[in-house]
Amino acid sequence: MSTAGTSQMISLLRLDPASYTPHLLHASSRSYPETNCYTDIVIELVHATGHEPLAMMGCALRVDFEGDQWTFFKPVPEHLERLYGIDIHEMQPYRPLPQQIAEQIGQGRTIAVELDSWYLPDTEATSYRTEHVKSSVIAEAIDVDGQRLRYFHGPSLFELSDEDFCGVFRLGADLPGDVLPPYTELVRFDAGRALRGEDLRAASMELLSEHLGRAPKSNPFTRFDTQLGEALPGLLEGDEAAYHDYAFATVRMVGSAFEAAASHVQWLLGDEGASATDAMMQIVQTSKVLSFKLARRRDFDPRPAIDEMSRCWETALSSLGAIVS
Fold first, then answer.
1. Which domain holds residue 236?
2. Domain shared by 22 and 170, yes or no
3. Which residues are registered as beta bridge partners of 110?
4. 192-221 residue pLDDT tens
């Protein structure tokens, strides 16, 4: 924690958004440079504290088709403790959030909080000042009096100030009494020893077996095939916003999950896991193709694409199962 010069900016890690380099999981060259709002901020927090986020991404192997969407996958809290000594748990936002954030950063901790993307300038291409969308961020630094916040969000570290600061924390707003406070979590770094090197790989390998044990018992793409067939006529007739909502919850979620899982397996197993890695990357590429076809808003048969992803899912999980058994 530091307080620089005459500034009242109190910082957890002394990071500057202008010079910050995101983790390779958020590289622009990836098919999906972002996963989902929560997993993205944990990736960058782990990376910024000097640890390897790839060790925790076996969680993506658990994704299932939930009936109308793919699993919103997140790193398992207990695994964050085991791998990195990071404890994330719910906290009570009973005081103004800027003061709580400053106090926790001053104690060498921080806060994860759901904020309104309307006031997050890094979402300029999507929801900034156009749409009210909740999104998770993790505070890295705050200047309460100067009204500045540096925060992990999406694929990197950003800063907001002034009107956005007031808006995101609802300062000076005449709010109705029935507005709920945002969901907040306390992030601590004293939950145990952070593992490194071969110790980290060994622990991640042990967790891989657990992740595979929690993977769907039946092929989830079979269920996705049925649901997409039922949803497709409405998607073709509906508006663009409905398509984007559906695509994010389905083809984009599953594509980003298996790209993250493929990177995890490559990091952990190298050539030994090549068969699984290749199969998962084929899921990624096919999900992109399916997404483009859906975006065209013209009738088509999605079954060949889903059949391909289904075969690749079985190949990936059976290959990994043979390695960890």
1. 197-324
2. yes
3. 187
4. 999 999 999 999 999 999 999 999 999 999
